[in-house]
Give the backbone structure.
Amino acid sequence: MRKITFKLLTKLPVKYISSGLIIILALFIYGVIGSVFIMNLNLIDAIYYSIITMATVGYGDYIPTTGIQKIFATTLALGGVALLAYVFNIILTNVQEKMSEYSKGARKLKAIEVMEDYYIICGFGRVGKVVFDELTQRNQNVIVIEKSKEICDTIEENENIVVINDDAIEDDLVAKLAGDKCRSVIICTGDDVSNLFIVLTIRETNPTAWIVTRASKLENIKRLKKAGANKIVSPEIIGGKDLYFESAKPHVLKITVKHTTDEIFDEFKIITENGCTLENIEYHIPGIETPLTRKIKTMDLSDGQKFIDNLNSNDDQKLAVENLYKTVNNIHSHLISGPDKPTFDKLIKDLEKQEEIIGINLTNREIAEITAKEIKQY
């Protein structure tokens, strides 16, 4: 407790310390001058009298007798009382503010302790915000570490989002948090030197942590790789959305399946019931290696129901979708993001009961070879 109190007192704002010292000095000079010219004391006694009067000790060895002496002694004593009140008020206010910060920090750490899995974002600039939006749209747990208090105040916290106002470079907190429960650390600061230092700090204590970092300059990519980053992303090449996908790579699955349009909703229902997000659909046209891609990015079952309802109420759209499926011989792939491998294992088993699964994480070339065989069969 003594150490905490000392730490709090030594962190008083400089402006308050300067103001307090100026007021003390001014009151002391007033007391010395008044003691010499009004109380008729020598310099040593004047200093002594000023101090004991300002401190409201008043031993009574020098007693004011005239009216002006009494007025001087009264003003000096009142000034001392006001000064003590001012100093104690500053100290108490500062202690309360610091204690509130410590209490708030303790609550944040407690919230992190109960999180099962989470992503850490270091730096909440333009790129960091894009990654944050991508993660929160998928209901992921996110810890944001940002040194700007103004930026931190703009981020709304809830049970899935914890915001820490701290500098990831000056504190080893990020290394402590990047343990077994951390899915990925995403470093988004605009300074490559800072990113390098954070990567080194994390890698020293967490050799298995999945680290994705931003590189502002292409020539720094090799340095960050050597420091221990798993993936380095340059905004000059790809944006924040791709940064998210790289960080979530251990939790993204590509499933190539074969089914008719009648099974679309049942398939989507299985994906959502397993807590996964359908990111996009790739339609593999026979003879063409590059697929036709549709971005979906949803885990809401109501979106799938709306799609089916729209098809059932619009014959032209339904016919267009059916023709598309016929064109690709009902073969297409789903890019699905999910929480972990056990979830994907269960998802695959559930889908196998519903439809034919051609392969998992196949390349476009492998799928093209499969579709080419499909053509020969007909």
